[in-house]
Amino acid sequence: MSVVFAAGFLVPQQFAGMDYFRGAKAAFPDALFPPVPPAADVSTRAQALANRINTAFPNGPIHIVAHSMAGLDTRFLLTHNLCGLAAPGRVTSLSTISTPHGGTPVADFLVGPTPSIIDPRWVAYQGLVQLAGTFGLSIGALGDLTGSFASTFNPQNRNLPHVNYYCYAGSGTGLFPLLQLSHWYIDSVGQTPDDKANDCLVSVKSASLIPLAEATWPTDHFGEVGYSLTNPPTFASPFDHISAYRRILSRAGA
Q: pTM of the full predicted structure?
């Protein structure tokens, strides 16, 4: 069976000499790590993802492991049967890691009106804008990660009965100051424990399109793909993400 690791919105599959999924190419040498336009909308990313997958694996079953926005890309791909990948016997499973199925308050905040300098949220806004800028993200490009987008997207992109779906989420606070800020912000606007628990970018509730396949991972959004912003020069995370990926693939039957 073929395995695909689909990258999220923050950075491309390769960035500054580093792979999006740190160490995964060595751990899973037969897997595909398809590049997609990192700051494009869901439909554009989904088509690019479908083209890459179908070219690499034109026949047989496929398991997709999708981090962050890539989970939305793959759900769109399946709903619209792009490149015939939703046909029985093609994409067999989709495992999403901290995908904002319900959107993220960070995107809602950044896409919405800029708060006044006397608004208590102004400091948080400036910090989150700086965080986005650090990774070269366009604020306008975050629209597909908002709660309002999710409210329309989800009814139009329901799970397919012949595809096995699994959801995973992180709940680590992180040590990087801007990530701590975004973690605090999501916690502050959350209404329930799962709304408040988050990996600094996506809440556990939002990541849970269906009940989580296992307990939340004790790491932030970057640790889920093997990185720590507070550990230069290697930026390696102490979280064992490769073992987590092995559990994902084992559970999916890959």
A: 0.89
